[in-house]
Design brief:
By secondary structure, this protein is mainly alpha-helical. The chain has six helices and no strands.
Length: 77
């Protein structure tokens, strides 16, 4: 394995977080994931960036922006 393969960590934490969001089903999660290079970046996007993604409106964008249940994510993992 090369160094990159040794240090790669799958974005399981971010996947769990996305599934905890009420307004996101499989299709919207897929659209979000397709819009960024790494799932972690979804939680760093600005409101206008989130709302520019097809299927993501103001309500869903706000839910992503205000997500703060990382303790719950860690408990699940």
């Amino acid at each position: 394995l090369n160094q990159q393969e040794k240090t790669y960590k799958p974005p399981v934490r971010e996947f769990v977080a996305l599934h905890l969001l009420d307004n996101l089903g499989a299709q919207r999660i897929r659209l979000l994931l397709q819009s960024v290079e790494h799932p972690q970046l979804i939680f760093r996007l600005e409101r206008y960036e989130l709302e520019s993604i097809r299927g993501i409106g103001p309500k869903t964008a706000q839910e992503v922006l205000s997500f703060n249940e990382w303790d719950e994510v860690d408990r699940i993992l």
